[in-house]
């Protein structure tokens, strides 16, 4: 037994050192990132052989208002730009998440409560009078010959008659239909909203047609099932869409309207032409009075709206008799996109005052920080309790009460969601990350630029996310309920904090504290320009940010994105030194001052520790440099000059401990005896030799009276109480027991 105990004790220091003081926080990411290839190079840029597939759609679809049904047919042309031969194609059938055999309700946890509302009970039982999912009528080749296919939940495999070789294209046809769900009852990213007072519907339609899944160099086929949370991985292509709706409906959609004279009145066309040259305020194409009058219309005729869009990854639309429509031009570089809003009267007065203005502001800020907005328009559509994005169009909440009154909270919430959803045009609609796999690459980056937009145009708006201090409560929470940012969308526990808030806060720390705006903005814009209309991976983002800035950030990505560590730096000790005057006799030797950190013994029983400056400085003695220190050098240090230069200076030795595990820069605010204040920045690399405890000496001309670490809360430090010196700390019962015994 004794021998075993000795071995265990001998191993303990090594184990403690390996896991504690050196946890490889500054080691390079290395094999954690994909190996560079000709498709994606080591700089984070697309490689010389980068490729991606192209998928073009020609779609005819009708919205049946009476039955809330979508009936469509499409011709898909798939171009294989990969070096691989493909024997089959995978098609996404996202509406099947509402089908009878869907896994979505099966994998959702649920629980009983002591009291339950009718709505919550209905959501629990799923007893809706609704038949969901796609009804696939046929899948045919270009010559109308049936193609074999197999449906697996939300994915459909289409088997090709012969393998599709690299560089070749294939066209095939699909006919389908489905019933649009009531969002008030069933929720969802799209659907219809019913207005009982005027017996009208507002349709916000997305995930409405069978769409090709992604095939790329990273995953092969991205055919993960759609369970409802992880969003979409899609290919770019050209679209021609013919949308047939009741003739008295107003329609908003992705793309450029090809037949305005057939679907708009002469008055509406005239107003629309005026809006193209109006930059200061929105022009109403359909006024509130006209929209209210149209609510009572019940036309039995139909209109077909034709839209064309190139280089997009998806298509969505909204339709209703209730829409007010306003438009304003925006100057972005050499382009003039149009900012538009569609909303029912129930959105006013808030929507006519704020929606299009928010679209304009978003396009300006995002274009500055990423790429100039390339499309012809950006649309904000109002419908209840939603925030969802698609190319050129998004659906947003924010409804006043029946008297038209609204709180500041509702106003700021609406503006925030419009900025966020319009911002999604950039992430991921243009910078086309894989949402099904990495939610943070669109939501987190988008939330960060949203915060820049709000700071620029709405400085009075309370920020919800996008600053370090706003993520503190989450990061100091129970680690059992936290996942790293680099977690698949379906496994994230706290979705908003993990995929939106923490990545946005991380980028804020990176911009404001670590890199500085100039370096960060250049690197971030480089990433955006490199990967516009392409498909970046996390490694491409990490590598580009380093490549374009010459800042080694591997430690940052490892800590913030791959762990659940948090920032908690404690200023444990401050010792004040001054140079001693050489004594002639022992009797004249100056006395040593008290230690810079002192714990008041008389207060230890009351559970308090007092951290304060000593009354007098500790003394260090100056010695002349020994000859051995010079080694082979012939030159000598002027010891007398060094002594003279430092004899009246104050030397402060600070001891910091890393309690949270996440390494971070140390920002120190010094307050001097004369009341002046100075801030110093110490890079995170100060922790590279010891990730738990570091000491550093600072030389000051003036006497220090107060020290604060992270004074502006820039690093997401979860406990600022131990960032201050002098201070008084309450001790735990356990610490009190130790002190007493």
Automatic annotation (TrEMBL):
CDD domains: M1_APN_like. Residues 1-18 form the signal peptide. Transmembrane segments: none annotated. Keywords: Signal. Residues 406-560 form the Peptidase M1 membrane alanine aminopeptidase domain. InterPro entries: Peptidase_M1_dom (IPR014782), Peptidase_M4/M1_CTD_sf (IPR027268). This is M1 family metallopeptidase.
């Amino acid at each position: 037994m004794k021998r075993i105990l000795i071995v265990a004790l001998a191993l303990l220091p090594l184990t403690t050192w390996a896991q504690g003081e050196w946890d490889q926080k500054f080691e390079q990411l290395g094999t954690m990132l994909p190996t560079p290839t000709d498709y994606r190079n080591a700089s984070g840029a697309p490689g010389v052989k980068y490729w991606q597939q192209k998928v073009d759609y020609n779609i005819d679809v009708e919205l049946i208002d009476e039955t809330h049904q979508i009936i469509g047919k499409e011709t898909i042309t798939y171009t294989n730009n990969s070096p691989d031969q493909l024997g089959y194609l995978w098609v996404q059938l996202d509406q099947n998440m509402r089908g009878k055999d869907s896994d979505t309700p099966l994998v959702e946890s649920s629980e009983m409560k002591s009291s339950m509302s009718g709505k919550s009970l209905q959501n629990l039982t799923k007893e809706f009078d609704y038949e969901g999912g796609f009804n696939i009528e046929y899948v045919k080749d270009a010559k109308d010959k049936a193609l074999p296919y197999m449906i697996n939940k939300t994915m459909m495999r289409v088997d090709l008659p012969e393998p599709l070789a690299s560089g070749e294209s294939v066209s095939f046809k699909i006919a389908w239909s489905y019933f649009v769900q009531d969002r008030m009852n069933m929720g969802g990213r799209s659907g219809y909203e019913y207005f009982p007072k005027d017996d009208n519907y507002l349709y916000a339609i997305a995930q409405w047609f069978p769409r090709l899944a992604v095939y790329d160099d990273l995953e092969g086929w991205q055919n993960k099932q759609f369970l409802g949370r992880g969003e979409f991985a899609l290919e770019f292509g050209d679209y021609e869409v013919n949308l047939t709706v009741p003739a008295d409906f107003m329609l908003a959609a992705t793309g450029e309207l090809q037949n305005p004279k057939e679907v708009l009145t002469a008055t509406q066309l005239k107003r629309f032409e005026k809006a193209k040259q109006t930059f200061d305020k929105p022009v109403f194409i359909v006024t509130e009075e006209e929209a209210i009058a149209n609510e009572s219309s019940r036309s039995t005729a139909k209109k077909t709206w034709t839209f064309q869009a190139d280089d997009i990854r998806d298509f969505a639309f909204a339709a209703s008799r209730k829409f007010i429509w306003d438009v304003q031009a925006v100057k972005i570089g050499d382009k003039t996109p149009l900012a538009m809003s569609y909303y029912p009267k129930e959105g006013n007065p808030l929507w006519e005052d704020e929606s299009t203005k928010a679209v304009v502001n978003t396009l300006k800020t995002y274009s500055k920080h990423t790429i100039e907005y390339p499309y012809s328009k950006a649309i904000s559509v109002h419908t209840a309790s939603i925030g969802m994005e698609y190319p050129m169009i998004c659906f947003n909440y924010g409804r006043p009460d029946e008297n038209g009154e609204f709180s500041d909270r509702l106003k700021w919430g609406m503006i925030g969601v419009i900025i966020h959803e319009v911002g999604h045009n950039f992430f991921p609609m243009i910078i086309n990350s894989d949402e099904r796999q990495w939610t943070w690459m669109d939501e987190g980056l988008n939330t960060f630029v949203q915060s820049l937009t709000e700071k620029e145009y709405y400085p009075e708006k309370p920020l919800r996310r996008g600053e370090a201090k706003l993520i503190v409560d989450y990061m100091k929470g129970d680690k059992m309920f936290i996942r790293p940012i680099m977690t698949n969308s379906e496994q994230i526990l706290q979705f908003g904090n993990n995929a939106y808030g923490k990545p946005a806060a991380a980028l804020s720390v990176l911009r404001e504290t670590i890199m500085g705006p100039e370096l960060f903005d250049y690197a971030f814009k480089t990433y955006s320009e490199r990967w516009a209309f392409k498909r970046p991976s996390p490694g491409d983002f990490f590598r580009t940010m380093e490549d374009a800035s010459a800042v080694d950030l591997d430690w940052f990505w490892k800590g913030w994105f791959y762990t659940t560590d948090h920032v908690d730096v404690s200023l444990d000790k401050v010792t004040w030194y001054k140079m001693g005057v050489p004594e002639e006799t022992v009797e004249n030797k100056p006395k040593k001052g008290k230690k810079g950190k002192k714990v008041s013994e008389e207060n230890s029983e009351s559970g308090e520790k007092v951290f304060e400056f000593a009354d007098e400085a500790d003394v260090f003695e100056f010695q002349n440099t020994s000859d051995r220190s010079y080694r082979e050098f012939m030159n000598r240090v002027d010891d007398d000059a060094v002594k003279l230069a430092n004899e009246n200076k104050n030397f402060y030795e600070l001891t910091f401990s890393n309690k949270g595990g996440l390494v971070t820069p140390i920002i120190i605010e010094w307050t001097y005896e004369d009341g002046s204040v100075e801030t110093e920045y110490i890079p995170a690399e100060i922790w590279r030799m010891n990730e738990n405890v570091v000491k550093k000496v600072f030389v000051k001309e003036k006497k220090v009276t107060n020290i604060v670490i992270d004074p502006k809360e820039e690093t997401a430090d979860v406990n600022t109480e131990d960032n201050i010196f002098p201070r008084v700390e309450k001790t735990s019962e356990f610490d009190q027991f130790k002190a007493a015994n």
